[in-house]
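[job 4471] stage=fold_predict status=RUNNING
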Amino acid sequence: RRTPRELKALGAVFIAELGLGPRDTMLSAYPLTTAAAIAQFWAGLRAGCGIALHHPFDFAAFLDQLRDTGATCTCVPAAVIDAMDRRGDFGGPAARLSRIGCVWPTPHAPASPCEPPLPVFDIHSLGEMAVILRQREPAAGPALLPLGKLYARGAGEGTAPYLETRVRGSVRNGGAQKTLRGELLIRGTTVPGSAQSEPDHPGEGPPAHDAHGYIDSGVHCSVDETHPGLFACERDAEIIYHGGAAIPVRELDRIYADYPGFLDAAAFTIDDPVMGDRIFAAVIPRPELSLSLDTFRRYLSDKGIAPFKAPDRLVVVRDIPRRADGSIERASILNRV
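[job 4471] inference complete, writing C-alpha cells
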C-alpha cells in the first residue's frame, strides 16, 4: 500500500510527463483501485484540469464522453487505441485529444505497438509496485524499459528519481550472446516502502528493502548485450498478469477449490489484448447443486476476495489434470476446453 506522499510523487510524474495544465480536460477510463489510476486522478486535480470519469468499459459511451467533454488527454489499453485508429475516431469523437497514454499490463508489450496520429505516452504498471511513464520515441517501442534512475520531465537538479531499477540474477550464455536473468529491484520516491519514499507513517510494515533501499518488485526480467541499459519483462508461469495486477495462480487455485459448491477447481488463463491474462475457472461442480457464476462471485465478495481475482467464466470439466508432484497441468485444461 502507498502512503499519500508516494501517491503525490507519482501524480507529479503524471503532470510532468503528460504536460497537464488548467486548459486540459482528462477523461479517466480506469477505476480508482490502482496506484496509477489514483495518481492520474490526483494529477488532474493538482494541475487544475477538468476531469471526467468513465465507468469501465463501454466503448460507445467512452467515445461519446471524449466528444462531449472535449477531452485533451486520456489513458487506455493499446487495444482500445488500435480500435480507435482503425475506425478513424481520432478525427471524429476524439478530435480534441492532443496526447494519449497507452497502458501496458506488464509483461504484455508487443513488438509492433499501436501508432495513432498524436503523441503517445507509454505507461507500464510493474505489478502495482512501480509505474514507468515515458513519451514514446519514434524509433523505440514499449517492450524494453530503462535501467537506472528515472526522473520526471523537467525535474530540477538534486531531485530524487521517482524510480530506479536494477536487475539481480545470474548471467547465462546463449551462443555468442550473454543474458542476465533475474528479479527486478526498485526504489524511488514513488515506490511503496523503499528507503527513498520517506513514508508518512514509519513502522506500518512496508515491504522489506535491502541495505541500499531496493525492494524486490516480483517482476522477472532479462538484460542482454544487444540492448545495454534496457531490460525486458518476462513471464513467470506461476503468475497471472491481469490488468496490471500480478496474482499467484496457486492462490486462485486455493480460493476456487475452497468453494463449497465445487468438488475441485483450478484457475487457467486465456491471452487477452486488453487485460493481458483473462481468468477462467475449471470446475467440477457438486452434482446436487446448481452452477452459477453470479453466486460464486458473491461468495468471493463475501469472503473479502478482491474483485479482480474472480473468474470471467466457469468451465465445467470432468477432472483437473495434475502431475505426479500435484501441480496442475494448465495447458492440458486449455487444450481440453
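[job 4471] summary: Residues 300 and 310 are 7 Å apart (CA to CA).
[job 4471] exit 0
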